[in-house]
Amino acid sequence: MTTVLVCPSCKRHQLSLHLKSNLDSLQEANELSFSSRKRNEGRFPNFFQCSLCEIAVSELSISQSFIAQYEDALYSSPKEEAMAANSYWRLFKSDIAALSSKSSFLEIGCGAGFFIHKLLKHNFLHVLGLEPSSDALRSASAEVQPYVRHGNFPESLGDKESFDAVFIFQTLEHLRNPREVLEDVYSRLKSPGFLFVVAHDYLSWQNQMLGEKSPIYDIQHFQLFSQKGLKAIHEAAGFAVIKQGRIWNTYPLSYWLSLLPSQFPKSSVPKLIQKLPISLSVGNQYLVAKKS
Ligand SMILES: [Zn+2]
Hints:
By secondary structure, the chain is of the alpha/beta class. The chain has a domain at 78-222 and 234-259 and 270-291: Rossmann fold. The protein has helices spanning 26-33, 64-70, 78-97, 114-121, 134-138, 178-188, 205-210, 227-236, 253-258, 271-274, and strands at 15-19, 47-50, 55-58, 104-108, 126-131, 148-150, 163-169, 189-200, 223-225, 240-252, 277-291. The protein is globular. Zinc ion binds at residues 7, 9-10, 12, 50, 52-53, 55.
């Protein structure tokens, strides 16, 4: 069992402090993990950075007591997830449309299945979503239910299940062993096979400007990637990165307001205005990787 903090990509342990914790103790992280659905807790552990890969690693990624509390803690609201699925569909639709309608797709961490629904709507019928949160799956529509499965990757797959494309959206940060998971994804892909990823970019100008006020510094994130770091971990897992860039997310204004520090007077913004969809680049990135 790992007890020394290492870079999840290159596995070196020469990490330097990137952000100093504002938690009083790691015990506080355990208590907060129970209520992790609250937005912008503003509490974060120490993050250490690998200078080689530009990946920031949370000290909680090796805290056994925290990990035990953390199970089943991830789930955003269905409304936000639906908006995110729209953004991701727009981002990847031309790549997906180039694949055969017989292609088999897997989404790891599918939440309530909004992206799975997008694929079904566009006549991709060989789709499967895996989701560890039973709470999230309970929100899945009846249409999507037959295509989603409760469980973790890869444990909840049959030995012979393989895929033409895999999707991992805003999930890599939450995994304890992201490189090993990506290696498993690689082995579950057919040749050629594609992986579509969305993640935060902690070195984007937006996140650098916000510094420790950025909501990405959170007890739920075991690691954070820059663009260089996201590419590095995929290459370490055997992939060729064929596309990478920044993304725009569209959410109701109310969601963007919820990410702001608590001092901001959100109630001063009229409710009707808060419902408006707003597209912003908030320092998220995408990547498309290929298994040849
Ligand atoms: Zn590294």
